[in-house]
Design goal:
Elements: H1 4-12, E1 27-38, E2 41-52, E3 56-60, H2 67-74, E4 84-92, E5 95-96, H3 104-110, E6 111-114, H4 125-135, H5 142-152, H6 156-159, H7 172-184, E7 190-194, H8 202-215, E8 220-224, H9 228-234, E9 237-244, E10 251-259, H10 260-265, H11 270-276
Parallel strand pairs: 2-10, 3-8, 3-9, 6-7, 7-8
Antiparallel strand pairs: 1-2, 1-4, 4-5, 9-10
Helix pairs in contact: 1-9, 4-5, 4-7, 5-7, 7-8
């Protein structure tokens, strides 16, 4: 795998010894997927990931291992897919998000999401950020909240003089930061990011990564990424998922979950070791 030396170089800069785990924080999200189906297809099994407050948790693994499915399970985005069936729990501060009394729309008020492709709405920059606020009948100063959100997404200085311009007029990296501003405008506690940099160039990618590190001071973040270097750079915790093909299907499952330094330097499972070294096709 051509990126392996670069990952090694990044890890050399990490000062935390392998044998010294990071201090434990409050678990905000406890995601336990026993079995997750789309119709008769078992997409994910045996995956348990606790997400701690004010950390970045990364899901890594090969294509088709269920990373995005697991992430979307957290704020019930999979509910929108026909045939979806879930066995397990997602506890958010002790409340099961899959309890029948819980409104999935309300779940997304507290657990926001940024998608793989920047998806600004066909409206002004201002209205893109204000959209969720209006939807949730925000009672405060709308203009002040939009500015606060754009500042939080490190975009205010670039757009403050063109708030009436279309969000689609921005560059790809700016559009993704606009989507982040839209996601944090309603002040969720948790922010999910599904391959947020896959459509961006290296410069824009680095800016979004820097932003993620800034945002974790206020938000709890979980990301899906195929980019091992990105996981090594930004994540505090990392879960490696793989694919079970023993019964002729393709069911994703969690192989191991640990501090990012431990996952990359001294993984426990041979599957993780092989993946980090690039020995899987």
């Amino acid at each position: 795998m051509s990126s392996e030396p670069k990952v090694a170089d990044i890890l050399k800069k990490l000062s935390e010894p392998v044998h010294a785990p990071q201090p434990k924080r409050e678990v905000v999200i406890d995601c336990h997927i026993k079995e997750l189906y789309y119709g008769n297809f078992k997409a994910v099994r045996d995956t348990h990931i606790p997400i701690e407050r004010n950390t970045i948790t990364a899901f890594i693994g090969p294509s088709g291992c269920g990373k995005s499915t697991a992430l979307r399970c957290i704020n019930r985005m999979n509910d929108l897919i026909q045939g979806f069936r879930f066995e397990g729990h997602v506890h958010y501060r002790g409340q099961d998000m899959y309890d029948k009394k819980v409104d999935p729309v309300n779940v997304r008020r507290y657990i926001g999401m940024v998608f793989q492709q920047p998806n600004p709405f066909h409206m002004s920059i201002f209205n893109n950020v204000a959209f969720g606020l209006k939807l949730n009948r925000f009672k405060g100063d709308l203009h002040a909240q939009v500015e606060k959100s754009l500042r939080g997404a490190a975009l205010w200085d670039e757009v403050k003089d063109k708030l009436k311009a279309s969000g689609l007029s921005l560059s790809g990296g700016q559009q993704q930061r606009l989507c982040i501003a839209r996601a944090i405008a309603t002040e969720p506690e948790v922010l999910l990011m599904d391959e947020p940099c896959s459509a961006l160039d290296p410069i824009a990618t680095r800016r979004v990564e820097e932003l993620m590190i800034e945002l974790k001071q206020k938000y709890t973040i979980a990301i899906v990424t195929h980019n091992l270097q990105q996981a090594a750079r930004v994540a505090d915790k990392t879960g490696f998922m793989f694919v079970d093909t023993t019964k002729g299907g393709r069911t994703g499952y969690l192989v191991e979950f640990d501090d990012t330094v431990k996952i990359f330097r001294d993984p426990s499972a041979p599957e993780t070791q092989q993946y980090i070294r690039g020995e899987f096709s």
